[in-house]
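ugh ok fine here u go
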Amino acid sequence: MRGLVRIISGSVVVVTISIAAAFWYYSTRDAREPSMLAFQAHCASCHGGDLKGTDQGPKLLDQPTSGDSAIELIQSIERYHSELVAKAEFPEPMIKALALYISEQRQQIPSSAGSHRHTIPEGIVESQHHDFSVELVTEVGKGPYSIAPLPDGRILLVEKVRGLSIIDRSGQHSGLVEGAPRAWSEIIRLRGSYVVLGAMLDVELHPAFATNGWIYLSHSDRCQLDCGSPWPVTMVRVVRGRLDGNRWVDSEVIWSVDKDKYTVVPDTVASGRIAFDQAGFGYVTVGGKSTYDNLHDMNTPYGKIHRFRDDGAIPTDNPFWQAEHLRDPTSSRNTVWSYGHRTAQGLAADPRSGDIWATEMGPRGGDEINLVQRGGNYGWPLYTEGLDYNAEYISIGKDLALDFEFSDTIPPVVDFTPAPSLSNFTFHSGEKFPGWRNDLLVGSLRAQTLFRVRIEGGEVIEREKLITKLGRIRDVEMGADGLVYVLIEHDATGSLLRLVPAA
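structure:
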């Protein structure tokens, strides 16, 4: 008995020290960012610490001759500052890191901590096709993550560390919906974000909700001793149920994995976004809730998008399906639809074709909008346009001896470098903003920007920043009234906003 107590006590100490070390590392990362330090040490004397220029050199914030893309900036640094690069002994990745730093400053992308500030614009916001205003519907609570507008004008709201609630047409909140899956309190707040093991994640209506009333929730299911673990472990799970007043009823588990696949990796990278295609198949994203060597192992759920029938049955035409007598009983390969994803924070179906699209967060650079294809390999962590946070190339894939050609992967339709930290998105529908019909309205966290992207024939036709400095956008959805609803988080709380066309 004493031995068991010592083991548990020792484990608690190790976990506590690890959490403290992680807290220090992430809370001080912005101040230690290598490209910022390199710029201040070698470039600021000419271009200014604020990039506004000095008597010795021009400003960089809006210098058109140096280009604006990362590639153009890299070429400019190499062409005009070769002596400085040689003298400073910059490794090749640092040149790209400096280009990303300059581009981030030009686009006014704040630090992760700074992104928790928010501004609701006053008056009319002008954009390419429509002018609009932004209205506050209501303030929300801790860790807002997703919304699902109901046909009657009410809105389902998910807060990661509180759970599921309902916002009525006047903006008033219900209490938490009774009987819905539990959301666990945060372990710690780190750089403004919640570190959780047991978070509520996405909410999505069945395509035939008007007739069957089914609501789908993803959450990070949590267990501990009953999983044989001395500390809490979690994993994404999808359930469905119906509302009876303010109660969750008829609950069913639709998609889950063996508890052997639950991990202690925090739910920040759980993803858990849900979407349905035109045939009624459901999809759910799972982030890198494990070591990256598992992202290309079809028997594990991590770094993948999974496909299931609306009642939880597994389609036998899934690309890696195996008969029960051939596969490991703990394997999740039968539901894998695509793999090699890092953190797919957004998922939606094109209303015209039913194709499934995903937004994916890269490291520093390499955010993507992807068309999700059956059996597709999306390359992470062997291929990415991003850099590591220490200003080095991403070496994880090579370190893991992953071996496949870039030509074997599905490249992104849209690359965002530098990375705005893309979150969820929607395809625009409705008559209030006809000039945006079928465009992607894409949220972002760090950049606090709502993007509008028009894609035709696999090519980007238009790309526009509709609003900037709005706040960390967690979800974007179309309301039953044809207006665009945007869920933002800021500081310890959040807000539900809507875009209204100008008169």
